[in-house]
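Sample entry was shown:

___
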Amino acid sequence: MFEDSTTQCLLFPEIFTKPVVLQFDQQNGSSDGGAILLKAADRRYGLIEALAGCLRDKRQAGKVDHSLRELLAQRVFSIACGYPDANDSARLSSDPIHKMLLDRDPITGRDLASQPTLSRFENSIRPRELYRLGEALADSVIDRHAKRLRDAPASSPSIWIRPTILPTAHSSYRSSTGTTTAGATCR
Protein backbone atom coordinates (compact mmCIF):
# COMPACT_ATOMS: atom_id res chain seq x y z
CA MET A 1 0.00 0.00 0.00
CA PHE A 2 1.34 3.42 -0.96
CA GLU A 3 1.09 6.02 1.77
CA ASP A 4 1.58 9.69 1.17
CA SER A 5 1.21 12.33 3.82
CA THR A 6 1.26 16.07 3.66
CA THR A 7 0.75 18.88 6.11
CA GLN A 8 -1.85 21.48 5.26
CA CYS A 9 -0.11 24.75 5.95
CA LEU A 10 -1.47 27.14 3.34
CA LEU A 11 -5.02 27.86 4.46
CA PHE A 12 -5.09 27.23 8.22
CA PRO A 13 -1.57 26.71 9.53
CA GLU A 14 -2.64 27.13 13.16
CA ILE A 15 -5.21 24.32 12.88
CA PHE A 16 -3.48 21.66 10.78
CA THR A 17 -0.19 20.85 12.48
CA LYS A 18 -0.54 17.06 12.11
CA PRO A 19 -0.04 15.26 8.81
CA VAL A 20 -3.10 14.41 6.75
CA VAL A 21 -3.04 10.85 5.41
CA LEU A 22 -5.10 10.05 2.31
CA GLN A 23 -5.83 6.46 1.35
CA PHE A 24 -7.99 5.44 -1.57
CA ASP A 25 -7.91 1.67 -1.09
CA GLN A 26 -10.76 1.17 1.37
CA GLN A 27 -13.18 -1.44 0.07
CA ASN A 28 -15.91 -1.02 2.66
CA GLY A 29 -16.27 2.74 2.74
CA SER A 30 -19.36 4.88 3.02
CA SER A 31 -20.07 8.55 2.52
CA ASP A 32 -23.00 8.52 4.97
CA GLY A 33 -21.16 8.56 8.30
CA GLY A 34 -23.36 11.36 9.61
CA ALA A 35 -26.31 8.97 9.54
CA ILE A 36 -25.05 7.52 12.81
CA LEU A 37 -26.45 10.68 14.42
CA LEU A 38 -29.85 9.82 12.91
CA LYS A 39 -29.66 6.40 14.52
CA ALA A 40 -28.83 8.00 17.87
CA ALA A 41 -31.80 10.36 17.52
CA ASP A 42 -34.08 7.45 16.65
CA ARG A 43 -32.89 5.51 19.70
CA ARG A 44 -33.67 8.51 21.85
CA TYR A 45 -37.12 9.28 20.42
CA GLY A 46 -38.21 5.81 19.24
CA LEU A 47 -39.94 7.15 16.14
CA ILE A 48 -39.21 4.20 13.84
CA GLU A 49 -40.40 1.74 16.50
CA ALA A 50 -43.61 3.75 16.96
CA LEU A 51 -44.21 3.91 13.21
CA ALA A 52 -43.45 0.22 12.74
CA GLY A 53 -46.07 -0.56 15.39
CA CYS A 54 -48.70 0.92 13.06
CA LEU A 55 -48.02 -1.59 10.30
CA ARG A 56 -49.60 -5.05 9.96
CA ASP A 57 -47.52 -7.79 8.35
CA LYS A 58 -49.73 -9.83 6.05
CA ARG A 59 -46.85 -11.64 4.32
CA GLN A 60 -46.29 -15.40 4.46
CA ALA A 61 -43.93 -15.91 7.41
CA GLY A 62 -41.79 -18.53 5.64
CA LYS A 63 -40.99 -16.16 2.79
CA VAL A 64 -40.00 -13.11 4.87
CA ASP A 65 -36.34 -12.06 4.85
CA HIS A 66 -36.75 -8.52 6.21
CA SER A 67 -39.16 -7.45 8.96
CA LEU A 68 -41.50 -4.52 8.37
CA ARG A 69 -39.51 -2.57 10.96
CA GLU A 70 -36.29 -3.19 8.99
CA LEU A 71 -37.93 -2.15 5.71
CA LEU A 72 -39.35 0.99 7.28
CA ALA A 73 -36.03 1.86 8.93
CA GLN A 74 -34.16 1.28 5.68
CA ARG A 75 -36.47 3.64 3.80
CA VAL A 76 -36.49 6.31 6.54
CA PHE A 77 -32.69 6.34 6.85
CA SER A 78 -32.21 6.25 3.07
CA ILE A 79 -34.51 9.20 2.55
CA ALA A 80 -32.88 11.11 5.40
CA CYS A 81 -29.46 10.50 3.81
CA GLY A 82 -30.61 11.97 0.50
CA TYR A 83 -31.70 8.83 -1.36
CA PRO A 84 -35.42 9.43 -1.91
CA ASP A 85 -35.85 6.69 -4.51
CA ALA A 86 -35.77 3.00 -3.70
CA ASN A 87 -33.64 2.68 -6.86
CA ASP A 88 -30.58 3.51 -4.74
CA SER A 89 -31.17 0.47 -2.54
CA ALA A 90 -29.16 -1.79 -4.86
CA ARG A 91 -26.05 0.29 -4.17
CA LEU A 92 -26.89 0.89 -0.50
CA SER A 93 -27.75 -2.73 0.34
CA SER A 94 -24.11 -3.51 1.17
CA ASP A 95 -23.15 -0.04 2.47
CA PRO A 96 -21.54 -0.52 5.91
CA ILE A 97 -23.16 2.56 7.50
CA HIS A 98 -26.62 1.64 6.27
CA LYS A 99 -26.13 -1.89 7.62
CA MET A 100 -25.15 -0.43 11.00
CA LEU A 101 -28.29 1.70 10.98
CA LEU A 102 -30.27 -1.55 10.93
CA ASP A 103 -28.13 -3.08 13.72
CA ARG A 104 -26.19 -5.35 11.38
CA ASP A 105 -22.46 -5.93 11.26
CA PRO A 106 -21.08 -3.44 8.70
CA ILE A 107 -18.84 -6.01 6.98
CA THR A 108 -20.26 -9.48 7.54
CA GLY A 109 -23.89 -8.54 8.17
CA ARG A 110 -26.66 -9.58 5.83
CA ASP A 111 -27.32 -7.15 2.95
CA LEU A 112 -30.33 -4.85 3.14
CA ALA A 113 -33.53 -5.22 1.15
CA SER A 114 -33.52 -4.87 -2.62
CA GLN A 115 -35.40 -2.26 -4.65
CA PRO A 116 -38.25 -4.65 -5.61
CA THR A 117 -38.71 -5.64 -1.95
CA LEU A 118 -38.84 -1.99 -0.89
CA SER A 119 -41.28 -1.16 -3.69
CA ARG A 120 -43.59 -4.00 -2.62
CA PHE A 121 -43.33 -2.75 0.97
CA GLU A 122 -44.25 0.82 0.00
CA ASN A 123 -47.16 -0.34 -2.15
CA SER A 124 -48.51 -2.70 0.52
CA ILE A 125 -49.35 0.04 3.01
CA ARG A 126 -53.09 0.71 3.02
CA PRO A 127 -55.01 3.91 3.87
CA ARG A 128 -55.80 2.82 7.45
CA GLU A 129 -52.12 2.16 8.10
CA LEU A 130 -51.22 5.52 6.57
CA TYR A 131 -53.70 7.15 8.92
CA ARG A 132 -52.18 5.33 11.91
CA LEU A 133 -48.69 6.37 10.75
CA GLY A 134 -49.84 9.99 10.64
CA GLU A 135 -51.31 9.70 14.13
CA ALA A 136 -48.10 8.16 15.48
CA LEU A 137 -46.01 10.91 13.93
CA ALA A 138 -48.29 13.61 15.35
CA ASP A 139 -48.24 11.94 18.78
CA SER A 140 -44.45 11.85 18.67
CA VAL A 141 -44.21 15.55 17.82
CA ILE A 142 -46.75 16.54 20.47
CA ASP A 143 -45.04 14.36 23.13
CA ARG A 144 -41.65 15.81 22.26
CA HIS A 145 -42.95 19.37 22.53
CA ALA A 146 -44.75 18.57 25.79
CA LYS A 147 -41.46 17.34 27.28
CA ARG A 148 -39.60 20.35 25.90
CA LEU A 149 -42.17 22.76 27.29
CA ARG A 150 -42.91 20.99 30.57
CA ASP A 151 -41.84 24.07 32.55
CA ALA A 152 -43.87 26.43 30.38
CA PRO A 153 -47.38 27.51 31.42
CA ALA A 154 -50.08 25.06 30.36
CA SER A 155 -51.99 25.94 27.23
CA SER A 156 -53.84 24.16 24.48
CA PRO A 157 -51.74 23.28 21.45
CA SER A 158 -52.58 25.10 18.23
CA ILE A 159 -51.91 23.66 14.82
CA TRP A 160 -52.05 26.14 11.96
CA ILE A 161 -52.76 24.82 8.49
CA ARG A 162 -52.21 27.28 5.69
CA PRO A 163 -53.00 26.71 2.04
CA THR A 164 -50.10 27.21 -0.31
CA ILE A 165 -50.60 28.83 -3.68
CA LEU A 166 -48.69 26.92 -6.32
CA PRO A 167 -48.73 28.22 -9.90
CA THR A 168 -50.09 25.97 -12.61
CA ALA A 169 -50.81 26.50 -16.25
CA HIS A 170 -54.58 26.00 -16.16
CA SER A 171 -56.18 27.03 -12.89
CA SER A 172 -57.10 30.08 -10.90
CA TYR A 173 -57.43 30.83 -7.20
CA ARG A 174 -59.93 33.18 -5.55
CA SER A 175 -58.51 34.59 -2.35
CA SER A 176 -60.55 35.52 0.72
CA THR A 177 -60.48 39.15 -0.44
CA GLY A 178 -62.22 38.19 -3.66
CA THR A 179 -59.21 38.67 -5.92
CA THR A 180 -58.63 36.02 -8.52
CA THR A 181 -55.10 34.96 -9.33
CA ALA A 182 -54.90 33.34 -12.73
CA GLY A 183 -52.55 30.42 -13.15
CA ALA A 184 -52.50 29.37 -9.47
CA THR A 185 -54.00 26.61 -7.41
CA CYS A 186 -54.58 26.26 -3.70
CA ARG A 187 -53.25 23.10 -2.07
User: Anything to note?
Assistant: The chain has two domains: 35-148, 160-187.
